[in-house]
Amino acid sequence: MTQVIKRDGTTTKFDSRKIENAILKAMRYGSGVCDSDVAASIAAEITLDYCTFPEEKQPTVYEIEEKVYKKLIKYGHELTARAYEEYRAVQSFKRQSNTTDESILSLVRNMNEEVANENSNKNATMASTQRDLIAGEVSKDISRRKLIPAHIVQAHDNGAIHFHDMDYSISPIFNCCLVNIADMLDNGTVINAKLVESPKSFQVACTVVTQIIAQISSGQYGGQSLNVKHLGKYLAKSRARYEEMLADLDEEIRERKVKEFLQRELESGVQTIQYQINTLMTTNGQSPFVTLFLEIEPGHEYEEEIAMIVNEILVQRHLGIKNEKGVYITPAFPKLVYVLDENNVPKDSKYRYVTDSAIKCSAKRLYPDYISAKEMRKIYEGNVFSPMGCRSFLAPWKDENGEYKFEGRFNMGVVTLNLVQVALTAEGDMDKFWNILDERLALCKEALLTRYELLKSATSDISPIHWQFGGLARLGKHEPIAPLLENGYATISLGYIGMYEMTKLMMNESHTSGRGKEFCVEVIKKLKAATDSWKKETGLGFGLYGTPAESLCYRFCKIDLARFGEIEDITAKGYYTNSYHVDVRENIDAFSKLLFEADFQKISTGGCISYVEIPNMNKNLEALDQLVTFIYENIQYAEFNTKSDYCHVCSYDGEIIINDDIEWECPQCGNKDKSKMNVTRRTCGYLGENYFNLGKTKEIKSRVLHL
Question: Which residues form the domain of 245?
Answer without folding.
Answer: 176-379
